[in-house]
Records
---
Amino acid sequence: LDDMKQLYAAVGIGAYCVVEVQGVPGYMLRLGADGKYRECGESGVLAGVGVDVLVATLGRLGEMGNMGAANWFMGQVKGD
């Protein structure tokens, strides 16, 4: 993960999410002006969307399929 974080920072990826790695819950990272990632509680792209919503969406893929999970996610983003 550290190698990927360094690569992403080098190419300027502003934020990314890591989901369930070796039993560690998901988390989001946002690239600071200093070129270092810091953990954050919600998406910088989709205001109000926390890592919990992203993790829950991925969990729904198996039961709902891609379209069902995408529709559920959109409902969460819209506040339905």
---
Amino acid sequence: MQREDELTPRDQEVLASIVKTFIETGEPVGSRTISKRRRDSLSAASIRNTMADLADEGYLSQPHTSAGRIPTVKAFRCYVKSLHARRVHAADAKRLRDELREVETVVGRVERSSHLLTELTRNMGIALAMPSGSQVLEQIELLALPDRRVLMILVTRDRMVRNRLATLDESISQDELNSIRNYVNRNFAGWPLGEVRSELLRRMEHERAAYDEILGRLQTLYSKGLLEVDQRPEIHMEGASNLVGLDMHLTRETMRDLFRALEEKKRMIEILDQFLDPAAEDLRVQVGLEEAHPAMRELALIGLSFTLPGGISTRIAVLGPMRMQYERVISAVLHMRNAFEHVAG
């Protein structure tokens, strides 16, 4: 059996024409259709022979004896290797940057990017941000509330904001909270959070006498989660409804299972973990997701991972049918990453 890199240039050209035609029409593709689309003099009979060879190699299937051929998952995987991103108009690229710039927080930008990817591709847009211990402290704010409660607000340099509500055994006045806030901000603004926590533990253990009142109160808040970062990913998904009505040869029950899986954030995070390597920032095109879920065998995922300033691992992706406009989706994903990095920089 031939490997993909052993296909002749004619085989590759014919296969690409079949895949493109099938994406456009959704119908089995015949040799006469391909012959009419080609600019050379290759006959329908020659194309038919090539298609027969491609079918023998597993690139094409034939639903009925008299029907044309349908590209298989193997054909789509071969096809996408030859694609390049389309150029995006400067105005469209600027619009992406402006849309993200309107949102001040990373979480907000993640949510906005999933919406933009859905709008650009008419598929399902997915965006995820994974906090890290290397995020840098911008400031904290502490607010006294009734019933011995304190609202602890943590802001990092990448504009991520976390709120944590703590209930204390003894009340702390707003003046005392202000002193703690000023101590932390004055001493540790600009430090990575992991280093802040380590230094605070050292000071609370060895320098208690010098800052007895402040460090004593600070230790209480520290034990309640001050300066802790929730490591759970922030994920936003939009556009699952765009998959409704696609002819993916699924039963009603299987379609229901598919949409149930698409609605589970945990499942989608697992899919991104499986197919998008956070250590590799190259674009990844995965055709056929049956490894993730049997109902996803006719879906494709296009996405990539990148790291924003401050250490936030980010992933953006588009989930759609195998019959998607790959060049357009690839372009949308790449330019969305560029917009993210431009705004974050």
